[in-house]
Please model this.
Amino acid sequence: MSKARSAYSISGKKEKFDTHIIVVWVDNEAGVLARIAGLFSGRGYNIESLAVAEVDKKLNISRITIVTTGTPQVVNQIRLQLKKLVPVHNVADFKREDKRVIFKEMALLKIVGKNEKRDKALKACKKFNPVILDKTNKSFVIQITALRREIDKMIVDLKKFGLVSVSRTGAVAMTRGAEIFK
Amino acid sequence: MSKLYTGAEIVFKCLEDQGVDFIFGYPGGAVLPIYDELKNHKSIKHILARHEQGAGHAAEGYARSSGKPGIVLVTSGPGATNVVTALTDAYMDSVPLVCISGQVPTHLIGTDAFQECDTTGITRPCTKHNWLVKDIKDLAKTIHKAFEVATTGRPGPVLVDIPKDIQFNKFSYSKLKKQKKINGKTHNFYTQTNIDELIKLIKKSKKPIIYSGGGVINSGLEASKLLREFVNATGFPITSTLQGLGAYPGDDSQFLGMLGMHGTYEANNAMHGCDLMINVGARFDDRITGKIDEFSPKSKKVHIDIDPSSINKNVKVDLAIVGDVASVLKNTIKKLKKQKPNFSNSNKSNISKWWEQIQKWRSINSLAYINSEESIKPQYAVQRLYELTKNKDTFITTEVGQHQMWAAQHYKFDKPNRWMTSGGLGTMGYGLPAAVGVQIANPNKLVIDIAGEASVLMTMQEMSTAVQYSLPIKIFILNNEYMGMVRQWQELLHDKNYSESYTAALPDFVKLAEAYGCVGIRAKTPEELDDKIIEMINTDRPVIFDCLVDKVENCFPMIPSGKPHNQMLLGPKDQKENKITGKGKTLV
Model:
């Protein structure tokens, strides 16, 4: 009996969690985001980030990019459950490691401090296409685009150069080459 | 310019176009325009429930026994929140419901107006889809789409929330057009290769079992016919889930009875020991699988289901066939007959050992119980009820608990749509209002709610509905004064600490029946039981039958929580030797 698990348990084996990026095309209508988010929370799936905006005004389609983690079984469920929703047109699912897909996230970083520190901060961002969007004699607002984990790292690194505020978009994804998501 | 109709008129135009003949509902401020319009539509009859939950369950009973969607009409705020239980129940058990709810006028939405609630927000997780209609132009389109969503694919409940001003606004009405599949979604995704693989497995198997579920019933009468044909053509044993009962005749020799937590010894052991499991329209629910790591360890599993998300959700399967059960079975039978015209005979020797093993399990007679001459054993009561009603085309609903399992074990169904029970959500109080709906759909049939005294009190007010519409439903209460299943679990898992599971101060059900204007009958001894049941059957009015049964009888056999199929508790004697300990206690 000591080995017994819940009648509700899915599997005795601890399976590895993978990070997946799920792209969902939906009708841009009231409540659609709540349906997607509610499906995730209701069924106990993770959302690490979520980016959504209308991409086709004529057809009224929004594209949602969700970063999630789960066992292969759970990720498969997420995909199938999403597909069942009435306003969902299509679902694509990729592992983060997938080489055929580009993932990018944008972040706005506010740096407050002396000139010297601010310049160091800017330098540190160099790899990630920094754009200075706002500049005063006390502060910078820098825009960078990078991978999630790169931004994670930047946030830690820039603390010492006077990073006071971060705003991030969540990852968006696009296939490489001429192919498009199916 | 075409004729203009009010929103309320459009609602009825849509319902008429959809062939609706009954609505179950309860009026209120925000649906008054719709109720006002009712008088102009003679083909649609409104059944006034006594609580919106009752209206919802009645619609479920109607839907399940007729195969048509059930229609519910409720007001805003509390009307909508009261129907949530029924919607969730329908969602879990895949029952097609279309719920129309009133909403405060659009300009008041979001102001915390009187009887306002976020209906679409609240019902989002318990419907297949819901809509808030904010423009009269969308109303007809939305209602028709609602019917389509509710009834296609895996059926389920939908809700259309209509603000009061929309009900007054005017617009033209366009007749129902057969729409294309929603977002291009079709339901049959399987290929001929899938069928070929299935047939290969069928031919190879030495220890096969067919495990059928509610999907067969939902697929329609044709599916039940095909299932019988399939079982016949293969010669395989078949077991059924709670929801699937009736799809295959309960008294047939190839039928092993129900499986799962309170299933038969032979069904569960056959599931555990098989080498091929063919799941036809069931969903590997946790009440069925028991401990999942040890669930049927040596079998190839085939899953036929219309819902792609059911595949590999709980149990990984070797062959998934996504499609309508009827279509898949039809194809399989056709192919099998073409390849092996006389398969069930030619394959007999291949599976004869398996059948011998099954007979051995069968001989344990796991549904046996120790009868008594003094007190009515609940199992005996159900058996007598079955014997005395089996020659009529009887419809059975149940509440939730021990009586539900006893009904499933001892009442043998031979037709689909005759068994209405809350399986997924396990809603106490389902059976009485469901019986109301079943009787509406089947006016001259015998409809019995096999009930527990605790469950039935949750929706007892619906007796008033039954009396109002002269629905001669029979409420057959197995009265043990306990919430029996709770008591049983407390006995097995919580050292007989019967915390709050005894109901003191129960009403006198016979007097209660009289108060409602129906007939009350009480049976106290096994001796008088038959006569009283016959009296009940012969009464052409609603009856509350108070059957006083043994108070401490437990429901066996049982797979204790956390145990696999081959470790069942068979009865009171077995229970002592096989005590549930440790972690098993924490499970549900």
